[in-house]
Design brief:
Layout: H1 2-24, E1 28-36, E2 39-47, E3 50-59, H2 73-89, E4 96-106, E5 111-116
Parallel strand pairs: 3-4
Antiparallel strand pairs: 1-2, 2-3, 4-5
Length: about 120
């Protein structure tokens, strides 16, 4: 139970940093932690004529690889299906769509943000 709580705190911290990074770079945050039957998307943002679905992965070390490597085929399918519902619900079919990821690596001495566009 303790690890689950710590992971939630770490995840929330990473999402806050990701939102700040996105806003600082001209993105409009439409929603966070959007959920439906198919799954959850951490951040949905708008940039120019694009709707961007963003998965945020926060790590304190790279013992298990980079966070982006954890976005496997199964996770991608859930993100894509969740995004389709969001697009239809909000009548956003006219926009270009992008599936991106933000990796936050925070340890005692540093903080690194890595933004990867078009992860699939």
């Amino acid at each position: 139970m303790k690890n689950k709580h710590l992971n939630k705190i770490k995840g929330d911290f990473g999402e806050e940093l990701a939102c700040k990074f996105l806003r600082d770079n001209g993105y409009e945050i439409l929603t966070r932690n959007y959920k439906n039957y198919f799954g959850e998307i951490d951040i949905i943002a708008k940039y120019k004529r694009q709707i961007i679905f963003i998965e945020v992965k926060t790590r304190t070390n790279l013992n298990y690889g980079e966070g982006i490597e954890a976005i496997n085929r199964y996770k991608k399918r859930h993100i894509e299906n969740t995004a389709k519902v969001f697009i239809k619900q909000n009548k956003l079919e006219k926009f270009q769509i992008s599936f991106d990821a933000i990796q936050i690596l925070k340890n005692k001495n540093s903080l690194k943000i890595k933004y990867v566009k078009q992860i699939f």
